[in-house]
Design brief:
Blueprint lengths: L1 H21 L6 E7 L5 E4 L10 E7 L28 E5 L5 H13 L10 E5 L2 E4 L10 E2 L4 E4 L6 E5 L4 E4 L5 E17 L5 E16 L7 E5 L2 E7 L6 E5 L2 E5 L7 E4 L22 E4 L1
Parallel strand pairs: 4-5, 5-8, 6-9, 7-10, 8-11, 9-11, 10-11, 11-12, 12-13, 12-14, 13-15, 14-16, 15-17
Antiparallel strand pairs: 1-2, 1-3, 16-18
Length: 292
């Protein structure tokens, strides 16, 4: 009996070997022959290899049916907060459509209409080419008072001009604000007035003629960044902690009270007094002439 059983297994072994040599991927179905007497089961390449007199051919799927869904796992730990998005400004165009005084009145009206500016809701006043004289609707000289997070951008120096006469001024007293892309002219009584700033404000690509830059009292974490601009005269109050960062700009006279105000200069020409390299509030200069 034992030799007979060995001979019965030989065809299945040969079939399995032939399948292994001729196939590179396993079959979808598994075929087998189950003995009718004793239940001996052998795996074959095909049920056609079963001896139906003594065996019952059977097949089953190589992959079983999908089981029931498992219990949901616990929530993972919260991930780190992503970086804050960039708040895009509301753009208010101020177009040149009439006289210089009317341009200026339109500019003042546009600024006064802004009541909800914030770090997440900034505004940008976009000035067309032309001249904007700072006068109100009644023709009186007036200041351009910029609320925090409200900036002004012109079409370029010499293309857009803001005119400040009889002591009128561009004032940004809380910040941060940005002034860029225009000429500001006056009768040497007008000014660009930056005082009590909070955060960093910028004057970029602004050419001043007949007006001066005035730095008032500020907090210690405040800075005014002057870039690629020119002023004939710049002065500061006697209050400490006025931080002025100057790059690529020029002026004739810069006065700092020497009471703890800080000034940072880039490639400055012939400074008077010690110039700090770390922008710490230690400068004692009273007058500087040249170009940064």
């Amino acid at each position: 009996m034992r030799p007979t059983r060995s001979l019965g297994l030989l065809p299945s072994l040969l079939a399995s070997l032939a399948f292994a040599q001729g196939k590179t991927t396993p079959p979808t179905l598994i075929s087998a022959c189950v003995g009718k007497f004793g239940g001996l089961t052998r795996i074959v390449a095909s049920t056609s290899l079963c001896d139906t007199r003594l065996e019952t051919p059977i097949q089953w799927n190589q992959q079983g049916i999908q089981g029931p869904a498992g219990t949901p796992g616990a929530n993972g730990a919260p991930g780190p907060q992503g970086p804050a998005g960039i708040a895009l400004p509301h753009i208010i165009p101020v177009l040149s459509t009439a006289s210089s005084t009317q341009y200026g009145s339109a500019l003042l009206t546009a600024v006064n209409s802004i009541t909800d500016a914030s770090a997440t809701n900034p505004y940008l006043l976009l000035l067309d080419a032309g001249s904007y004289t700072l006068k109100d609707q009644n023709g009186f000289d007036a200041d351009l008072k910029l609320p925090p997070f409200v900036s002004v951008k012109g079409a370029g120096p010499g293309v857009t001009t803001i005119v400040a006469l009889n002591g009128s001024a561009i004032r940004f007293t809380s910040g941060p604000n940005t002034l860029s892309g225009f000429t500001i002219s006056g009768d040497f009584t007008g000014q660009v007035h930056a005082t009590s700033l909070v955060g960093a404000s910028y004057i970029s690509d602004v050419q001043a003629a007949g007006v001066f830059l005035y730095l008032g009292a500020s907090t210690s974490n405040t800075s005014l960044n002057l870039r690629d601009s020119s002023f004939f005269y710049a002065t500061s109050s006697s209050s400490p902690s006025v931080n002025l960062f100057i790059t690529g700009s020029q002026f004739t006279v810069l006065q700092v009270p020497g009471d703890g105000s800080a000034i940072c200069l880039a490639d400055y020409a012939q400074p008077v007094g010690p110039v700090p390299t770390n922008c710490a509030p230690t400068i004692q200069a009273s007058a500087v002439q040249g170009k940064s």
